[in-house]
Amino acid sequence: MSAADFLLELRCEEIPARMQAGARADLERLFRAEMGAAGVAVGEVTVWSTPRRLALIARGLPEATEAVSEDAKGPPEGAPDAAIDGFCKKNGVTRDQLELRDVKGRNTWFAVIDKPGRATRDLLTEAIPAIVRAFPWPKSMRWGAASLSTQSIRWVRPLSGIVAILGDSLVECEIGGVASGYATRGHRFHCPGEVTIGGASDYAEKLRACHVIVDHAERQDLIRERAAKAASEAGLSLVEDEGLVIENAGLTEWPVPLLGRFDEAYLDVPPEVIQLTARTNQKYFVCNSADGKLANAFVCTANIEAADGGAAIVDGNRKVLAARLSDARFFWEQDRKTSLADHAKKLERITFHEKLGTVADKVDRVSKLARWLVEEGIVKGADADQAEQAARLAKADLVTEMVGEFPELQGLMGGYYARAEGLPAAVADAIRDHYKPVGQGDKVPTAPVTVVVSLADKLDTISTFFFVGEFPTGSKDPFALRRAAISLIRLIVSNGVRLNLPLAILSPILHLSIQVIGRHYEGTIVSLKGAFETLGIDASEGELSDDYLTEVTNEDWIRAAVFEPSSRSAGQVLDFIADRLKVQQREAGVRHDLIDAVFALGGEDDLVRLLARVHALQEFMGTEDGANLLAGYKRAANILKKENHTLVTPAEAGVHQASGADREMDSRLRGNGENGTIPRTGDEDPMADVDDPQMRAVYAARSQEKSALSYTPETDEKALIEALDAAGPRAAAAVEAEDFAAAMAALATLRAPIDRFFDSVTVNDPDPPKRTARLDLLARFRDAVHRVADFSRIEG
Left (φ > 0), alpha (ψ -120 to 50) or beta: where does 707 sit? Predict the structure, then answer.
């Protein structure tokens, strides 16, 4: 069966540039779906777009579909006549054409439907109107007299022409009064008349001859090349902007980049403002001079080859840009007449969120948290006064004229205004960059004051939204909390910030509660510090500074309305951040089971230390020692689980347990059970708190007790005991020193002894003392491994 190429062009008035990429994808998708449903196999498809047309070329379509026979399953034998008649009518057969077939022991009626082959051209005649009517434009319109009916055709702009050719034959169809034909139109000014198309093979070249480059990718390449050349010929360099390249290609059918100049006086305005003004309002590129600074030049993209070389076009665009830049300069000058501190006072009139108060309320929380982060030594090298000042002024530019016109400049303009009024450079930089990092590829701030303000801002956003129940669900994340969490993690990890996450999360939540109480409640005044102490939170040793202590209403009310929900919210936030961290690490190439193995240890609130352990574990598990040690561990763990053999837990030893909100917070982070104990699964680490000073004596006594055996150990048994005696303290010391590579090296020394132990020693010895001692030895081995990671979570 011979094959032919198919061309479809849908021509209309100007299609917005922002819609063209989606339209290309939708056209191919709908075409493939329609033809697939008709039984036509579609191979290579090319889709192009210009401002005035969508074009599709499908290569090698068959001339006709093959005849096929299909079976349709109907009702079972004995079904009501109405059901059988309905089945026959649906499939276009009579009763005597039905067949009975056995289906799982029950006779069932089947209809054999013979579908003859059909000409592909006939199928296209039906498919094209279906594609047009199903097209999902973001915005569409009806037009003409037919638009009075809601059933009239909808398109992005009035549809004016259809070209549909299979091979060299016309595919006849009609949509909304527009019939298909061989004729299209060229460039609106250079070649406005009709152009006859012979088929897919000559479509692009005939339009090129009529000043239409139908391939959008070719237009983009042309704009990149000629815009850069125009700048270079003037001794300048083009500021690359791929989004602007794509947009200009979507606005033109015959792009002609032209260089123009504007008044140098406008260069007093921040360069980002000039670039955004030129880009957003006029779709112009900007240029840099040889010294890398913004030049008073722009590149516009004309849609015509002008007789004067484009001089009149450039002059007209220069005048329009001058008007835009004049507005920008006015905003710049007006905004600087008011200090940032005075601008910040207007934030009281802007609602941040109905449940979270005003932007001024948020600023107050962030500034207190920023000072705390510095005074507690969490972010090194930052000045507390500068951090608080930057936090209080960071959102001030939201009420300026410039940011009102260009919201994309928030933060950036605040930095410029801060410098203009003589504020310290560290404060200005923090105001400018406190939103960073915004996306995965965005640069992470490293300046101490900036890091402080950015951390405080993101901690407040995540914590308070969770506190009021506005957290992400499924694919919905209206407040971009997932992105904020990833940014928070990148800030902490990139800058090596050693942060007590539970406390940092709890702080803005508590301060939000204080703000709410202060606004809405009056009554008997009691000390919030007393409420802290009642709940077991030590507020006397700097854990929470005095800024977080205030006087509020009734202590019982505080417990029910503030601290209990705060603790719950803090736990949710910790889980949320942990999930984002796992996702981030998996995307960075870290095995998910190794992440789980470290997270399962619990009790870790320092992301820097946690990730160092994860990365050391990944490196270790890539070695032969790691793989063999894992095999030995799993064998030991399986024996202990089968025998239900456990060591004494801290609770059983009568050791003091944490209490109050500290314990509740810690148990949420660790994933522990009630009363600070660890849920028993048979695989947990009973020595997880071996570094607790109150536990050292207990474990030392137990170790000494275990060393006094009632029998002489076998050679390989003794070797494992000695290896554990040496490796256990080494691994523990290395973990304490955060030298996780050394901890892994210590574990590696256990590989050979545990292998020999299993080869030559009978664990389940008939002699009860031997059996118990050897099970204890395996428990020691398991516990030594658990000092570094929960190997039960590792696959392999």
Answer: alpha
Average pLDDT over residues 694-703: 47
Which neighbouring-strand residues pair with 141?
A: 155
Average pLDDT over residues 618-628: 89
d(CA 101, CA 71): 11
| Degrees, nearest 5: CA angle 558-564-565 | 100
> Which residue in 80, 180, 178 sits closest to 124, CA to CA?
180
What are the Cα distances from residue 562, in Å, to 131, 194, 465?
Answer: 57, 74, 15
The average pLDDT across 496-507 equals 83
Rounded to an integer, the average pLDDT of 40-67 is 92
Mean pLDDT computed over 633-641: 89
Kindly give, in sequence order, each residue whose CB lies less than 8 Å from that of residue 93, ignoring residues fewer than 6 positions away: 111, 112, 113
Distance CA 16, CA 52 (A): 9
pLDDT at 565: 61
- Which of 501, 500, 570 lies closest to 535, judged by CA? 570
Directed axis angle between helix 564-587 and helix 448-467, to 10°? 120
Q: Which residues of 249-261 are buried (b: 16+ CB within 10 A; e: fewer)?
A: bbbbbbbbbbbbe
| Cβ atoms of residues 116 and 67 within 8 Å | yes
pLDDT of residue 557: 45
DSSP state of 280: I
Query: What is the average per-residue pLDDT within 426-446?
Result: 92
HSE-CB for 436 with a 13 A CA cutoff: 19
- Map tokens 């096929």 to a residue: 68
**Amino acid at the residue 696:** R
Please write the tens of the pLDDT for every residue from 286-339.
Answer: 999 999 999 999 999 999 999 999 999 999 999 999 999 999 999 999 999 999
What are 11's strand-pairing partners?
Answer: 53, 161
Q: Of 106-115, 297-306, 436-445, 726-735, give the range with the top mean pLDDT.
A: 297-306
Q: Taking Cα atoms as reference points, which of 750, 717, 746, 719 lies closest to residue 730?
A: 746
Please give the Cα distance from 696 to 368 (Å, whole number).
Answer: 39
On the 0-12 / 13-18 / 19+ scale of CB atoms within 10 A, 91 is middle
142: left (phi over 0), alpha (psi -120 to 50) or beta: beta
* Residue 400 predicted with pLDDT over 90: yes
Q: CB 158: neighbour CB atoms within 10 A?
A: 15
Burial of 556 (C-beta count, 10 Å sphere; 0-12/13-18/19+): exposed
Which structure tokens are listed for 413? 């303009």
Q: State both tokens at 761.
A: 């020693």
Report pLDDT for 232.
96
Helix (H, G, I), strand (E, B) or coil at 406: coil
Residue 18 contacts residue 246 (beta carbons within 8 Å): no
Using DSSP, state whether 600 is helix, strand or coil: coil
Cα–Cα distance measured from residue 710 to residue 761, given in angstroms and rounded to the nearest whole number: 17
Q: Report the distance separating Cα 352 and Cα 398, nearest Å.
A: 11
- Please provide the average confidence, as pLDDT, over all residues in the chain: 85
Residue showing tokens 């109150």: 694
- What's the rounded Cα separation, in Å, for the pair 546 and 743? 40
Return d(Cα 516, Cα 356) in angstroms, integer.
9
More confident residue, 441 or 227: 227
Distance of CA 394 to the CA centre of its chain: 25
